[in-house]
Design brief:
By secondary structure, the chain is an all-beta fold. The protein contains no helices and 21 strands.
Amino acid sequence: MCKRYLLFTLVAAVLCSTVSFASPNPDAAPGPKLMAAAPLLYQVAGEEFVTTYDEDCRTPKRYFLQGETVCARAENFAIHPSEPRYRLFQWGSPDGGVAQEDDINNDPEYEYFKIPPAAQVGTWIVKTTDSSRDGYGIGSFVVRSREIPWVNLQISKFAPEIVYPGKKYKHEVYVYSTGPDDAVFVTLTEDVPNDMIFLDMGQTSGPEFRCQTPPAGAREGKTVCEAQGMREGERATFTFVYAVDPEARIGTLISGKSDVFSRTSELEKLDSQTHFESEVGDPNPPQEEPPGEEP
C-alpha cells in the first residue's frame, strides 16, 4: 500500500512509504491499492459516509490520544458505473492542513491513520474526495494530548448596530466549549459599554454560572460570571440589558468587549474575546420635502 503524505503542518515534505499494517477491513481483505490515473469523472448525487473506529476497525471511537491509530470506514459511493472509481481518504488537521491521503478502491473501504506523537490537538477531519479534492463523505475525530488538557473556548455577541438615546437594548452573549478536553473553572467577563447604563443580566441556557454584576443604573463596571467547568460541546447563553445614555450625542460610537477564559490551557485565544460597536442614531431624522409639482 502506498501512502502519499502531504505534511503541510507536520513535515514539509511529500513522502511515499510502505505501511506494515495488515488489511484494516475486518470482514474481507481488499485487493492491492493502485494509484488511479487522472480519470474523467461523472459524479452522481448521493450520500457518502465516513465513520471512525478504534484500531480494530469494529469499535466506534471519536476520542484519541496522540500516537494512537484511527481506523476510518467510507461507504456508499455514488459514481456512474461507466466511469472509473476515483476517491481518496483525506486526513486534515484542525488548522486546515492535509496530513495524509490514501486511495480508495472498494466500497466499503477501510484505512488507517497513525496520529503523530506531537500531532495538533483538537478536531481532525477525515473525508472522501475526488481528484479535485472536493469533499463528499465527511467524518471527524478528536485528538487529545497525552501531556496536558487543552480547550478552545469561543465567545460571540449580538448587539444592534444602531441605537437611540434613552432606549433599552438586549445584548446576547454565547460561550462555546469546543474541546478537545473539558474546561475547568470558566470565567466570563463583560464591561459596561461606554455611553450605556447597565440595567440587568441573566443566563438563559447552559451549565450554571454564578454572576456578580454592577448595580442597576451603573454607567461603568464589570460583570463577572464563573462556572465550575464546561464540557466539550457545551454552550452557555447570557442576556445583558442596557440603556443608551439619554445625553449620548448622535453619531457617538458605543463599543465594548466580552472575554471568556479558564484554568485549562487555551488553544486559540483570539476567539476567546469579542468586541461590538453600535452607533447612536437620530431618533427624529429630518423629513424629506415631497417633490413639488412641475409648473
